[in-house]
Amino acid sequence: MAVDVQAETARWLATMSPEELERAVSYTQGSHWLILWGFVVSVVVGWLIIRMGLLTGVRDRLNRSRSRPNLTVAAIAVVYAVLTWLLSLPWAWWSGWRRETEYGLTSQPVGGWLAEGAMSAAISTLLSAVLLIGIYALIRRAGRLWWAWAGGLTAAFIALMLLAAPIFIEPLFNTYTPAPDGPVRDAVVELAERTGTPSDKIYIYDGSRQSDRYTANVSGLFGTARVAMSDVMFQQGADLAEVRGVVGHEMGHYVHMHALWMTAIMGVLAMSAFWLADRLYPVARRLLGANRVGGIEDPAGLPVLGVVLSFLAVLATPVFNTMIRTIETDADRFSLEHANEPDGLAAALIKTAEYRAPSPSPIEEFFFYDHPSVENRIRMAMEWKAEHPPER
């Protein structure tokens, strides 16, 4: 029997009730506004830190007797990160916990959210201090081309973090266990062997600890790469077809080395951002009233640099999103080609629509969606189904 692509797509979308759809649209469109308000918060926080004068005080104290550039950068980076986290905490609480709770997307107690946020901030502070030491050293020594070297350093840092995250960072927040023996593991191992994915790198983790979102991911590089499915998938009744469809998608990321492609592109974007920051920094310093801060080589100007980079990140939102949508489409295609579970993939996708409204306008999708819309992804799956009818 021929498959009516439009009818099948509509059938899957109709599995959401009007109330669920309205809630998803409200959440998704509200998330778009978070981009703007998050930038406003970053400007206010940067301005407050400049007004406090703590960073210039740290700079002057450490360099009173002799120049200590690396120590100064490290100390200022730590103070800046701690102040930023504390001053941003009310916004982070509302946008990252309260709002998620109101929409039923997390059941994590606020104490657990706060503890994990503090641990994440501590890790981020340490890592950012290391990266900033390198970037400011390049600003001092690489001359007018510091932005190119800094972009390369950023790409190398991202690659290192991708390599290390599954071993050193992710286990701090969740417990990862190999998929247990049974039909699910057998189906995943069979798919892994056919796609060239390590069959011992398939995990289930307690994602419900932080979020009630139906999700899976691939993380790591080379020998540390692994596919991980949140336990929420199984709490929401994922069957073998769904598992194969979802895991096939994640294997697509692994086989096509999307993480490396992303890292390379991020390096180019970082170069562009640093080049623009070099030119916008004096303007931002004047607008923020940072009179005691020197040029871009002055680490006490980190709040100014942070505001500039936040501004550029907002402008680059469509670029980031287009890049991610492209690889997500490729991973969907890989899943369809190798797992051949169009209905399983559609069933999984419709469960993600609670936090990603399924049918945005093309303009909304272009500017704000970091994945293809659920409607477009299901349509692609149904087109595959129509072109590849099951053998009798």
What would you say this structure looks like, in words?
By secondary structure, this protein is mostly helical. It has 15 helices and 4 strands. The chain has helices at 5-13, 18-52, 54-62, 69-102, 110-141, 146-169, 183-195, 232-235, 240-255, 258-287, 302-315, 317-338, 342-352, 362-368, 374-387; strands at 176-178, 202-205, 216-219, 226-230. The protein has a 4-stranded mixed β-sheet. The longest helix has 35 residues, at 18-52. The chain is elongated, with a radius of gyration of 23 Å. The N and C termini lie close together (11 Å).
Layout of helices and strands, plus pairs?
Blueprint: H1 5-13, H2 18-52, H3 54-62, H4 69-102, H5 110-141, H6 146-169, E1 176-178, H7 183-195, E2 202-205, E3 216-219, E4 226-230, H8 232-235, H9 240-255, H10 258-287, H11 302-315, H12 317-338, H13 342-352, H14 362-368, H15 374-387
Parallel strand pairs: 2-4
Antiparallel strand pairs: 1-2, 3-4
Helix pairs in contact: 1-15, 2-4, 2-11, 3-4, 4-5, 5-6, 6-10, 7-9, 9-12, 9-13, 10-11, 12-15, 13-15
Task: Put the structure in a nutshell.
The protein has 392 residues and is mainly alpha-helical.
Strand content: under 5%
Shape: elongated
Largest sheet: number of strands, sense, barrel closure: 4 strands, mixed
The low-pLDDT segments are none
* Percent in helix: 55-70%
Quaternary structure type? single chain
| Category from helices, strands and their pairing | mainly alpha
User: How confident overall, as mean pLDDT?
Assistant: 94
Radius of gyration: 23 Å
Q: How many separate helices? A: 15
Could you tell me the number of beta strands? 4
Order of helices and strands: HHHHHHEHEEEHHHHHHHH
- For the terminal residues, how far apart are their CA atoms? 11 Å
User: Widest sheet: strand order?
Assistant: 1-2-4-3
